[in-house]
Amino acid sequence: MTVTRSVGDDVGEEPSRDDGPAVSGTVLSRRRWVVTAAAGAVLLAGAGVGASTLIKSPAQAAADAAAPEPDVLSAVVDERVLKDSVILRGTVTAGQSVEVTPVLAETGDSGTRTVVTKLPVGAGDRVSEGQVVLEVSGRPVFVMKGTLPVYRDLKPGSVGDDVRQLQKALASLGHHTGRDAPGTFGAGTKTALSAFYRDIGYDALPASPDEEDKIGAAREAETTARRAYQDARKALESTSGPSRTAAASDGAEDGKGGTDPETILARAAEDLQKAEDLLAEAEAAAGPMLPSGEVVFLRGFPAHVAKVSSAIGSPADGAALTLAAGELVVHGYVQETQKGLIRAGHPVEILSELSGAVVKGEVSSVADSLSLSAGTDPASAGGEEGTASGAVPATPDGYLIVVKPGEALSSKVLGEDMRLTIETGSTEGKALVVPVTAVSSGADGRSTVTVLEESGKQRRVAVRAGTSADGFLAVNPADDGALAAGDRVITGVKGTTGMQR
């Protein structure tokens, strides 16, 4: 039996089992057609794409063959103070460095050993004028202000510039030397020196160990001579006129002389004068002395203990202390290529890299000649051989730069390595600043920069170059307003072969 159905009849109806094979064949046929059409479309699309890659218009081919558009490098014009500087290393030191080597004064006691008995200061301590810094075998070593080194013991009766220096030092400590002439160790200086020793807790040593014996003997001789003179005078006064004449006549006849009372008195007067002079000399020579081993003269204060090389109880057979005198400064060395850039008065930034502290200062002086230090290796001195004694030729450290801090440095940084930034040039106030690579010079010698406008246009601006530092240059446009902060200037062009200008 054949069943005739419209297309609409298929909707919502279940086909009969007898019609199943016929319906399945129709569906499969439709699906094969759809798949074939889709595959064809894909093949046609791929062919179109391939054709588009192989076929180019003449304009497109020329564009592809041309060099790529170069990249323009630019920088913004800044407005600021531009400073040029030199950076070097420096060491904190003092204006004067003195090694204190104890020398025990002669006391007449052969059994005294030279040992350190007191050490009242330590490394880094501040030292004031008149302070005791060391005691050796019970005797003090103190510091005073002065420029002359000690080379002898100063005793009563001494004369010289070193005595004048002692007198000034005593006066600055409050012990004036009275009417003593400057440079003469007299009674006033003796009194002042004795008072100073009492202030620091010690007795001054006598100028001579046996001075008391000498004074005693001179005083006894003076007493004897005075009595003889007094006796001669009484004898003369007790003799009448005729008797005096007869005595003088008798003395002349026997040729002995001396029996004349007047002659006896004259000779007694001479003896008394000599005895008085000897006593005055003995007394003048007696009194306190300043042993050369008990004082250290320093050029300025405050002073600091740079190094302690001894301990209590150790033999004092070498330098016991090293003192640094005067305000602390920083020493650096600069080479020939930079020496001409640095002058006295240039500002300096002193940086402690240990603490991070920064102190302002200025260049105090620049040496005119190279500073030399002993070498350690002949090869480092150009291969030259040392002397017969094995010494190595000196090698240059550079030109010494002395930097004076604007404020006093702590003694704790004595000997510390510092970073010095020396300002060698600066613009006067704010200036227009561009990278050095933005400035070019033409054949006419004019300097220009190229301003890059927002539109992409470029324009040349003539400028006058000023201070340069750290890769930047201060510029001033030849025409007012031609260049301003915030403008962009071309610093280079990056092409396929690298950077170009």
From TrEMBL:
<dbReference type="InterPro" id="IPR002477">
    <property type="entry name" value="Peptidoglycan-bd-like"/>
</dbReference>
<dbReference type="InterPro" id="IPR006311">
    <property type="entry name" value="TAT_signal"/>
</dbReference>
<feature type="region of interest" description="Disordered">
    <location>
        <begin position="220"/>
        <end position="261"/>
    </location>
</feature>
<dbReference type="InterPro" id="IPR036365">
    <property type="entry name" value="PGBD-like_sf"/>
</dbReference>
<feature type="compositionally biased region" description="Basic and acidic residues">
    <location>
        <begin position="220"/>
        <end position="236"/>
    </location>
</feature>
<feature type="region of interest" description="Disordered">
    <location>
        <begin position="1"/>
        <end position="25"/>
    </location>
</feature>
<feature type="domain" description="Peptidoglycan binding-like">
    <location>
        <begin position="160"/>
        <end position="196"/>
    </location>
</feature>
<dbReference type="Pfam" id="PF01471">
    <property type="entry name" value="PG_binding_1"/>
</dbReference>
<protein>
    <submittedName>
        <fullName>Peptidoglycan-binding protein</fullName>
    </submittedName>
</protein>
<dbReference type="InterPro" id="IPR036366">
    <property type="entry name" value="PGBDSf"/>
</dbReference>
